Automatic annotation (TrEMBL):
InterPro entries: PAP2/HPO, PAP2/HPO_sf, V-haloperoxidase. Residues 306-437 form the Phosphatidic acid phosphatase type 2/haloperoxidase domain. This is PAP2 superfamily protein. PANTHER family: PEROXIDASE-RELATED (PTHR34599), PHOSPHATIDIC ACID PHOSPHATASE TYPE 2_HALOPEROXIDASE DOMAIN-CONTAINING PROTEIN (PTHR34599:SF1). SUPFAM superfamilies: Acid phosphatase/Vanadium-dependent haloperoxidase (SSF48317). Transmembrane segments: none annotated. CDD domains: PAP2_haloperoxidase.
Length: 450
């Protein structure tokens, strides 16, 4: 017997918009996933939101006379005798569930992720996710399969280990006797060293907007001998130190800068990571402006595509260029400048750490700039006042208010220097790279149809 459309009304909802609901589910899955990385999280967001957008576009094509903006992959005018109850909600929600199940449901060591996902489906629909729905056959399975096929074999499963150049200036593991990091005890622990080779969602390749510096120096020897490199090291030594030392008797970071550094952190497991903070901000801005479901579907997709491709582009810079730049802690300690120097960033147990991958360019800066670029182009202005939040438990404040998207992106970039884990040029090049990615995504994806 053919599956039947659900007839019962949805349970009472505290979150009306399905796009926002399933993005909330994604962020919680990221918090719960062991060692989730920013690039993988951004890829998941792009696949989720682009699939929901195509599902919503298909619904509008079938029942609302069409859509205003082109789908990401394809929209179908699927077969139906008549519009079923809560059909828009079901098309989006069942698409979201199946994409997330594919992305988070295969880890045998974390079955609780599927349990959580199933519970969120039940809470939304009041039924089991395994139950039949005619929409699964007429449209949902087609949207989901197209998304999964488009990114099958995209390079995201490449687990080849990193091999360091072993030269002064080249990145190396950042675990030291007085700041032990079991997740970064050897060079091969470098996180996602092949992510810059992943197939992008909109860009032609991860290297499309590769910046010139510090790769323009060509060799580590020339880089370290340059006056600019010395200025970069000195800036982060003074601004990013955890505490004064004999060789660094004064830390010039202000109280406000330290608060911002922690607010933008979200480096540790258990947080929604940097892309998640920007998706959460997107939600808060959307709700304040009362966007419709279709508007949200397009906005969250543009943001997520830009974040995903930023994650790929910045990993290209970190690993695929001539310079895999070491972290400030290595530059300062191993050059003999200050063997006691530690970055402000630390675990919840108070152990100072640095992210376990090369410094140049900054992922936070790239993500933040790509997000800000999409947001200001979507809303037609940069001058939007908004408040956003953080997941970082070490942040002294849980929210900060900004008067423009670019102001938030600039502070996000600067915060990495104040946290002691990046040089200023990492932030500057990340801002430029993110802007280029954001503009390319906005100019080439989900365009208005004539």
């Amino acid at each position: 017997m053919a599956p039947q459309s659900a007839a019962a009304a949805l349970p009472p909802q505290t979150i009306a918009d399905p796009v926002i609901y399933w993005n909330d589910v994604l962020l919680e899955l990221i918090r719960r996933e062991d060692q989730a990385t920013p690039g993988r999280m951004a890829r998941a967001a792009a696949m989720l939101n682009a699939a929901m957008y195509d599902a919503e576009s298909s619904y509008r094509l079938r029942w609302k006379g069409g859509f205003d903006y082109a789908p990401y992959i394809q929209a179908d005018k699927y077969w139906a005798l008549g519009e079923g109850p809560d059909e828009e909600e079901r098309v989006i929600g069942r698409t979201a569930y199946n994409v997330l199940l594919e992305l988070f449901g295969k880890d045998a060591d974390q079955p609780e992720l599927v349990h959580y996902l199933d519970n969120r489906f039940r809470a939304r629909f009041g039924s089991e996710p395994t139950g039949d729905d005619v929409l699964d056959y007429s449209i949902v399975s087609h949207v989901v399969n197209r998304m999964l096929t488009a990114h099958e074999g995209d390079g995201s499963t490449n687990e080849q280990l990193y091999v360091s150049d072993k030269k002064p200036g080249a990145w190396r593991a950042t675990s030291y006797a007085d700041m032990p990091d079991p997740n970064c005890i050897e060079d091969s622990k470098a996180v996602d060293p092949n992510w810059g080779l992943v197939k992008p969602f909109a860009l032609t390749s991860g290297s499309q907007f590769r910046p010139a510096t510090p790769g323009m120096y060509g060799t580590y020897e020339k880089l370290l001998a340059s006056d600019e490199y010395k200025r970069q090291v000195e800036a982060v030594r003074l601004l990013g130190a955890d505490e004064p030392t004999a060789a660094t008797p004064k830390v010039t970071r202000t109280t406000e800068q330290e608060a911002a550094a922690w607010f933008w952190g979200n480096d540790l497991d258990g947080t929604y990571k940097p892309p998640g903070q920007l998706l959460q901000a997107t939600r808060e801005i959307s709700e304040a402006r009362k966007l419709t479901t279709y508007q949200n579907a397009r906005l969250f997709t543009l943001v997520s595509l830009a974040l995903a491709d930023s994650g790929i582009a910045v990993r290209d810079v970190k690993y695929q260029t001539e310079i895999d730049l070491w972290r400030p802690v290595s530059a300062i300690r191993e050059s003999g400048i200050d063997p006691e120097w530690k970055p402000l960033l630390k675990t919840l147990d108070g152990v100072n750490i640095s992210p376990c991958f090369p410094a140049w360019a900054s992922g936070h800066a790239t993500f933040g700039s790509a997000w800000a670029t999409v947001m200001k182009r979507y809303f037609g202005t940069d001058n939007v006042t908004f408040t956003m939040t953080t997941d970082d438990k070490q942040s002294p404040v849980q929210s900060r208010t900004f008067t423009s998207f670019s102001q938030a992106a600039q502070e996000n970039a600067n915060s990495r220097v104040w946290l002691g884990v990046h040089f200023p040029w990492d932030a500057a090049d990340g801002l430029k790279l993110g802007e280029q990615v954001g503009n390319y995504v906005f100019d080439n994806e989900l365009q208005r149809v004539s």
